User: Fold this.
Amino acid sequence: MPIKKRCAWCESNQLDRDYHDTEWGVPVYDDQKLFEMLILEGAQAGVSWHVVLQKREHYRKVFAEFNIDKLAKFTDAKLEKALLDPGLIRNRLKIFSVRSNAMACKKIQQEYGSFAEYIWQFVDGKPIQNNFKNSSQVPAKTSVSTQMSRDLKKQGFKFIGETICYAYMQGVGMVNDHTIDCFRYKEVKKLNHKK
Assistant:
């Protein structure tokens, strides 16, 4: 049986490969999942995505499975307790941004009907299909991620710089950045828009 060719970034361990093979680049339209990924991408700033994947289940446990309504009501005491948790990335600003981001997300839901409606507008509701030959061609940010970052900041979000926003777009399938030699490239390309 031939060995599957994957994007270079995921080849160092099984956890990264599994994430790459099943989630990365798959369009997400569920608000809770979109919010989870936004928080995790922000948590990743300054550390590797592998570290975040290792801690993801614990993040879900501590942060109410990323239930936006519950997180918007988290008390200072709960967040201070989370800050002492070795299973999380213990950065005060990142931990406290979970609550403020949940509050900002709730406002968007009220205005747009859902966070998905808001976030997908940046790509006109349809994934961007790239055709990169190798990972060195994949950008760290784009004009779209810059625009998204600016708007999210205006809405009150934190830890959503243009590079984080681009990684987020890749993670939730707003862009297909699997390289063309990767076995997931065609599979993800076939995934249609929900509407």
Q: What stands out?
A: The mean pLDDT is 95.
